[in-house]
Amino acid sequence: MAGKKKRKGGKTIVNLVLGVICFIWLLPTLGLFISSFRPAADILQTGWWKVFPHQEWTQGETLQLSKDTDLRQPIEVNGQTYTDDQLKAGVEVDDSRLMWENRRARTINMQEQGWKTTPDLTMDNYSNVLSGKEYKLTEADGSETMQKGTGLSQAFWNTLTIAVPATVIPVLIASFAAYAFAWLRFPGRKTLFVIIIAMLVIPIQVALIPVLKDYTSLGLNGSYLGIWLAHTAFGLPLVTYFMYNFISQLPKDLFESAFIDGASHFTIFSRLILPLSVPALASIGIFQFLWVWNDYLVSLIFIGNQPSVQVMSMKIADLVGSRGNDWHLLTSAAFISMLMPLAIFFLLQKYFVRGLMGGSVKG
Amino acid sequence: MKKATGRKLSLAMVLCLSFTMMLSGCGGNNNTNNAAKTDPPAATEAPAASNSQASPEASEAAAAGSPLDLAMKGEYKGTKVTMFGPFVDADQVKFESSIKEFEAKTGIDIQYEGSKEFEATINIRVDGGNAPDIADFPQPGLLASIAKTGKVVDLTGVLDQEKLKANYNKSWLDMSTMDGKDGKIMAGIWNRSNVKSLVWYPKKQFDDAGYTVPETWDDMMALTEQIAKDGDPAWTIGIESGAATGWAATDWIENIMLRTTTPENYDKWVKGELPFTSPEVKNAVEVMSKIWLNKDYVYGGTKSIVTTAFGDAPKPMFENPPKAWFNLMGNFITSFFPETAKVDQDYDWFYLPPIDPQYGKPVLVAGDIYAMFNDRPEVRAVMEFFTTGESIKTWVQSGGVIAPMNDASLDWYTSESDRRMAKLVQDASTLRFDGSDLMPGKVGAGTFWKGMTDYVSGTATLDKALEQIQSGWNN
């Protein structure tokens, strides 16, 4: 009885801690989300939390000082003297705050505390990102024409074209390899496996120029095939290792009985291994997909920035303009690019959970 | 039995595979070594070949017209020229609209690829053998380092030098001559330029307040003091720019250097012969400090300089009434101005006044240099096209860029402000390129930025900061 109560108490603490961690993790995302609906000028001036009702100093009575007040001397306001710096930052007197309203005109405002709720929200950031920005071009006669830039749709399909094969190919190859390493006895198995594990520590940066040279001679540069192969190769060691860990844990008896029943390796793989390793396939699939979807470096080197093949991450980076003048668009662009991975995650999560459960009950 | 052979076979295959892998690994190295070894003669051959090719072609060209004329006749219809550069978004749209007519007339398809990571990527592409036909370098220092490897085509034999001399100020041509693998080469041609000696101010309010544009440095300082007395800090300065924080400060130093010492000293300084610790440079920083370190002169005080993004700095000028009045920045800053503000009416610029009259009216410029990596007739035609003012005419009309070519008419500029800028460049007694862009990356895009940031933020004294900047040359 007492033990049960204790466990309950422990659970609350765990939940509380988890709740706090979730909150800390989600807070910046929430801020980004709110910012994505704010106009550019607002983002520059105030924090995203200002969209909520909050107390703020609001304009009150204006005091006019004499025009020739010397700002470098102590300044007298209502019988009290203040320094210029104080008035710049604001001095609280009773319930109000004295602050420069217009230093040039020598006016001071007696501000009062008040509640403020003016959530000024807009969809401009989203429409600019989704359907393309408008650029103003001036013609020879001085008239202005608007030219519409491209939206995200082309980049979205490009990224999908890259990400789906670049997820399926390595996961498939790695599953074959993992099965072989786990259940086939062939000489040099351990050595090969160690070599593959060793490849995990090779940073992809060192491979970029050599691979690019080979791609140039093979004519694979800027082609989808090239980038599929690049992502496959860079992803394979980890995926193989991950799948090996899972497949080698499957009960040996299953395969032995299947073998006795006359199943070939391919039958065992397709009929037994694949269905049993759905949870592992789903989770490593999510990892690999996220990696490819968010990738910038590999795309930058192997596929480039031509509009016909440009991926989302590069298109989004370009949105801010040559000198970063439109960085506020990154807020909405981030959320748009997040949609796909989120969708994939929730879609696969079903299999993920079911696969785990199925494995545990049936053995 | 069957199984045993299968096993042996797989063993043999695995061994073979690993062997071939090892061999190909080593072989690859050997190949690259060989390539490296054979590279110098090949490279020396290449220019020679292109030269020898160039001369008959040149004589041919004399008969049939230059590559550009041939292109205009439709000789190269259906060919593609790849181009790689740093401008994206609005600039890319403006660039593409400026070459549209050329593409339609000649049938050459210029495939422009813009990337925010140009500086990082171009080296990888050139090393990886995947260089674009033409690349647009905003920093000539970067092109200079690539030119040394011998991978840039020498334009001396490609473009008609007489035509170039007629169409460019000599300073521009001098700046495009760089060290190649074997001696000096003409590494590129200038296509766009921007002016960096401009002080932007809110014109309407400035006139209403009864201020007049200062003609000398002392006038400017007096006006700054006057504005401070009237109740505003005169200057709004921001040097924050992410990983590039500090570059805006280098423009100040370069401008002041040109106004307090000889152009020769400036050139020496850029080459690293005049150290940062010398009295000339120290003096320049001190002149700057008289404005920067005076909290009454800078919007938000000295501390905010380092934390204000250079693009956000002009914003207080457009408040009503303005909270600050002057912002020293190149002409590209107008893309950060509020969209509602109108050029010539709401804002304008004045030339950063001279300090010492004996150095005349020097102008600091920056620009984009186009280099050629693959020598094909259609690429030559496109390069020749880029030496004509026509190639950026529509961009000039849209504003934000100055054409360095002489055949670019002043009438093309649709705003008075741009036209005055173009005139300023044409009439300049001394034209000098942004020094930090010319210095090697370690200094110009490294210690110089960082040293200035440390000095302004107060984490280093002036002497220490200058020593720190100078140390970039030493390693």
Automatic annotation (TrEMBL), chain A:
Instruction: Report the PANTHER family cross-referenced here.
Output: ABC TRANSPORTER PERMEASE PROTEIN MG189-RELATED-RELATED, OSMOPROTECTIVE COMPOUNDS UPTAKE PERMEASE PROTEIN GGTD
Q: Which Pfam families match?
A: BPD_transp_1
- Official protein name in the record: Alpha-glucoside transport system permease protein
Biological process terms in GO annotation? transmembrane transport
- A GO-annotated cellular component: plasma membrane
| Organism of provenance | Paenibacillus jilunlii
| Domain of life where this protein originates | Bacteria
Entry-linked PROSITE patterns: ABC_TM1
UniProtKB/TrEMBL annotation, chain B:
Signal sequence residues: 1-24
Keywords (A to Z) from UniProt: Signal, Transport
Q: What is this protein called?
A: ABC transporter substrate-binding protein
Q: Which family does it belong to?
A: Belongs to the bacterial solute-binding protein 1 family.
Q: Where is this region: Disordered?
A: 32-65
